[in-house]
């Protein structure tokens, strides 16, 4: 009995975290943040040309703001949120993760190939954010296994 209660608690915790959505009104907030950040990135390019000291910090803040805006849009509810919308949302997240991982894995080789064509001193450089993908995939695998175990033993 104690094991079943623990499993139900695990399922409830994960459902609470993964099922969290912002109200539909936040789509506008996310869009405004995203557009503002994109405009800031364009401004950041002008600062780079003027050799401003904090250009990199400004650019990082703008890039983070754009990703945060997209995240807000992504986790905001639709006007009509039903089971079909939930299924479509999960399918789109699955697709997005797979495509992102593949692009991150392939892009360094494409960059190396293009650089080899135009330069005699080419070297392969991967993305510095690959650890984020590792954390993303590990959290998905651990969550999947925990939920699978909890649902199979009920």
Automatic annotation (TrEMBL):
Top-level division of the source organism's lineage: Bacteria
- Segments spanning the bilayer are 26-45, 95-114
Protein keywords:
Membrane, Transmembrane, Transmembrane helix
> Would you tell me the protein name for this molecule?
DUF2975 domain-containing protein
- Which organism is the protein's source? Flavobacterium yafengii
């Amino acid at each position: 009995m104690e094991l079943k209660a623990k499993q139900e608690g695990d399922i409830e915790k994960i459902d609470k975290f993964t099922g969290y959505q912002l109200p539909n009104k936040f789509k506008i907030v996310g869009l405004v943040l995203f557009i503002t950040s994109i405009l800031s990135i364009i401004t950041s390019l002008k600062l780079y040309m003027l050799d401003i000291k904090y250009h990199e910090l400004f650019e990082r803040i703008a890039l983070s703001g754009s990703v945060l805006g997209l995240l807000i849009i992504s986790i905001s509810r639709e006007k009509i949120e039903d089971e079909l919308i939930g299924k479509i949302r999960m399918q789109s997240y699955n697709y997005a993760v797979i495509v992102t991982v593949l692009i991150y894995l392939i892009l360094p080789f494409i960059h190396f190939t293009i650089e080899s064509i135009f330069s005699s001193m080419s070297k392969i450089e991967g993305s510095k954010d690959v650890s984020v993908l590792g954390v993303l995939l590990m959290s998905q695998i651990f969550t999947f296994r925990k939920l699978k175990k909890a649902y199979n033993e009920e």
